[in-house]
Amino acid sequence: MGQIAQIRAREILDSQGNPTIEVDVITTRGILSRASVPSGASTGTDEAIELRDEDQGRFLGKGVLKAVNNVNKILNEELKGFYITDQSTIDATMIELDGTENKSNIGANAILAVSLSVAKAAAQSVGQPLFRYIGGVNANTLPIPMMNIISGGTHADNKLDFQEFMIMPISSASFVESIRMGAEVFQNLKLILKNKGYSVNVGDEGGFAPDLKSHEEAIEIILQAIEKAGYKPGEDIFIALDTAASEFYDKKKKLYNLKSIKKKLSSDELIDYLITLVNKYPIISIEDGLAKDDWQAWNKLNSAIGDKIQLVGDDLFATNVNRLIKGINEYSCNSILIKLNRIGTLTEAINCVNLAKENSFTTIISHRSGETEDTTIAELAVALNTGLIKAGSVSRTDRVCKYNQLIRIEENLGASARYLGNDFKFV
Fold first, then answer.
1. Could you give the CA distance from residue 323 to residue 317 in angstroms, rounded to a whole number?
2. Which are the catalytic amino acids?
3. Among candidate residues 127, 146, 169, the one where a domain is terminated
């Protein structure tokens, strides 16, 4: 299968113009693989540490030369000679070398870049696409894209508190058709926003970032775009929200400060507000509806509408098995968002997906706001048959490249390809 001969890293730029790390793995049989890692705008205290230089003379302190050096000096030397297919041992070795709970010594960005590049090299070494190498013969489910088409919160310079307003094309028979549906809604939304005099500039993840007056206005404009594109809201296409509630939560006062409605809401009041939106609109997914440590309120929200819609924990779980176990035990929600750089190795991310599935959670493979051209998350969504992916809007190459890779995978699978679509449990 070949062994690791050399690992080398470099500093590159992500989609926000910030530095990130890219890693090449070269095997004894001459195979070269490459992986790069993203960076998040809204990061949680429970996620693995993205090592930055903090040298204000370079990239405003965001350089990653320390992480690059840790790959080139530490991981390169320690991992030479490992068989390229021994993913779990390689990942465990890197975790042991780091020696911290949050990978703060070597850096989760350094470790993840190596972890993903190793997997890619192994797939090449056995002559398989990455999704097939990771997932085996049963890897055949194409995910429903959760497309961010209006951005707010930390992803945009507008008054919307909620971070993402997404569409989920459900009724199509294939992934490629779902992308067409989403793109048509996106283009019609652009026309509607222009006609209303709103800006059609886009946010970090490719969604439009107009200065809308309220969350309700954002949803209603999206519904107009769905209908203008020739589809039926709540039948062909549904709406999903990412409130990113931790971003507007006052921990001391235990209140949610919603600037869009000029109110500070208690946990119960925010729950009531979310339920009102769900009852009024065809919403089938809410991510981070409450702050990450508002555990009791999460239970209330899940008890109220968890049988009707998908309630996703992102900040709540941070792709961390220990936090997921707590959420399962406390009946906190019914879905988990998987962000590779929040945990730092491919093995840990897969373990998190498997635990979630064992407990009847839906699983969503996700990008970050600062992305690269790396398409690993597209491969992983199919490899693990998650059936759901967040990769942003259908604009910006750093987002579209993931969708384009899924189109290629669907073509590769041929007649064995399955699109989750109407089999999604919350339709």
1. 5
2. 205, 339
3. 127
